[in-house]
Amino acid sequence: MVLIDWLIVAFYVVAAVVIGMLFTKKASESTADFFVAGRSLPWYIAGTSMVATTFSSDTPLFVAGAVREQGIYANWIWWVSVIGVIISVFFFANLWRRSKALTEIELISQRYDKSLATDFLRIFKAIFDGVFINCIIIASVTLAMSKIIVVILGLSPEPLFDIPLFGAITATTLILIVLAVAAVVYTAMSGLYGVVYTDLIQFALAIVGSVVLAVIVYVDLQDHGGIVAAVEASPGFNSDTLKMIPDFEWDLKTATFVILVCIGWLNYAPGFGFFLQRTLAARSEKDAMLSLYWFAFCHLVLRSWPWIIVGVASLVYFPSLVDAEQSYPMMIDEFLPVGLKGIMVASLLAAFMSTLDTQLNWGSSYLVNDVYEPYLVKGREKAHYIKAARVSMLALTLFALIVTTQLESILGAYEYISVIIIPISVVLIARWYWWRINVWSEISALITAVIVGNAMMYILPDEGDAKWFAVRMLATTITTLVVCLVVTLITSSKTPTPKTIEFYSRLKIHGRGWKKVRDLTGIEPIAAGIKDNAIACVASIAFIYSLLLGIGNALFEDWQTFGYYLIVIVASGWVVKRKMPKVIASLRQEV
């Protein structure tokens, strides 16, 4: 990198801090302003912010590494998420926005009867999700950023000094600390306002950088006979490299694919983490729904292929890499000229800061809104709780950096989280559509998923190329579902409690699971058109996945298969166009 590259990087860091300063006063008005931007975000701002946050520094490294080691179809580990996101669009987003909760965890106190068990669950989940899971995510993006810095800047790995708990501090570590401090500063000043508006800059940089790199690489491969011929001739090529869907054989790869498609999306359907935070920050139910739809389209259709093309092409240029996750930054260093390299590096640094600022704001919202304010320090002025949120962000940053020193693999972090979190999602979905779900249902699901998920790591450990994480996830999900169902039938009352009736009366949820409450109260649901929602949901899933796979087949010169997908694109798109107006008309439209 030369001076102009560094100036581009510096411009983004300074711009992010300036944006934080501009929104400081607005964010300090209330915790709702600080954590959910005063519920003022239009769909395109909220949705773009989701895309930018998932455009984290670890994602292109993970994608490129997975393609090299397993093949294109390895991306189904994150492609399946869009099934859950689209289901959330049509069945959960409007309900979350209608709840007016400040965090996902707050819903526990809205949904379940007041008890020590409810308080325990709220506190435990706030700490488990807000600290433990949150810090693993932060650690994974920090690990990715360190790999990018090492490859592109070529800094010495020699330690400069040691710090207890953190270990050896290198030049790379110092750069990460500077970026983390900048992210903490503007996030602490501006809350979610600063997060989402810096995300817009990050999204623009990331799209430009990744697309330009992919185009340069794709064009360069034409001198090698085209991308398909060049990759097939590379030493690292195997029969699975260019497959978007694995061969259906009785083997572990096929089982992994089927399991991911069947249940890998579960945790995205009921809403979680920063996705849910943006949904709660939307200015209306319509905006909440459309923000997720926009995210689903960008997440899968716009972003996938630039990363995959670079990952596949790296087999041609760097066939003998030991660490596959270093292939993406090495391709940046190899192909991008002065200026464009600065944009790409700035986008990756911005991606790191974008994910960090989101996780910090989200994590602190749990700690303050669901632990500190309701249980530890009650009835203080709003400024006190905003100050507590800013302090908690700093504590989360320090803890996450410690976790980073213990993390060895980005993919390993994703797999571990999936095995624990996805099984819990079964009860998180059911609590919206079955009145008998109670606090013990959720507690039993949480305990079962944690115990069984961790036990399965010892029962079915990964060995060489045998990756058992999906099987572990399936076994944990089935066990959790059975335990949750049994506990629910044993512990739930035969008639709806006053809390259950109040929850339904306020949210007016459709579906047969609330029929008994509906008959008891005489209150009809707001959105009764469940058939239109279901048809639009299925058509949207078909439309987005057909676009994804159709574009991929065109890029890899399989024109016949592209033609088949084109038919599905047109047919499903027509259904979506007809049904979406009816779905939107059934929502509360007020801002």
From TrEMBL:
Bilayer topology: Multi-pass membrane protein
CDD domains referenced in this protein's UniProt entry, alphabetically: SLC5sbd_u1
Keywords: Membrane, Transmembrane, Transmembrane helix
InterPro entries with a match to the protein in the record: Na/Glc_symporter_sf, Na/solute_symporter
Membrane-spanning parts: 6-24, 36-56, 76-96, 131-153, 165-188, 200-219, 254-276, 288-318, 338-356, 388-407, 413-434, 443-460, 466-490, 534-556, 562-578
Compartment(s) of residence: Membrane
UniProt keyword annotation of Nucleus present: no
Main localization, broad class: membrane
Residue stretches in coiled coil: none
Record carries keyword RNA-binding: no
PANTHER family xrefs: SODIUM_GLUCOSE COTRANSPORT PROTEIN, SOLUTE CARRIER FAMILY 5
Protein family per UniProt: Belongs to the sodium:solute symporter (SSF) (TC 2.A.21) family.
Protein name: Sodium:proline symporter
Native organism: Pseudoalteromonas gelatinilytica
